[in-house]
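Q: I'm writing up a methods section and want to include an example of the input and output format. Could you take the sequence below and give the corresponding predicted structure tokens, formatted cleanly so I can copy it straight into the document?
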Amino acid sequence: MSVTGSWIRSKACVGRDHCVEAAPAGDQIGLRNSRFPEAVLVVDKSALADLLGTIKSGDWLIEPPR
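A: Here is the clean output for your methods example:
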């Protein structure tokens, strides 16, 4: 799938040449590295929201064996 929307990046990336960029594509979102814009990962928006929610909650952390 090709992403035709406008690519955006975090304000924290101003002046940097290697940032994660995102572009909406219907029910999906395209993600890419600004240094390698030809490589695009397209994921469902709901799946990305679930992943980010899990990361923010810390539920993915696994306690090391003792």
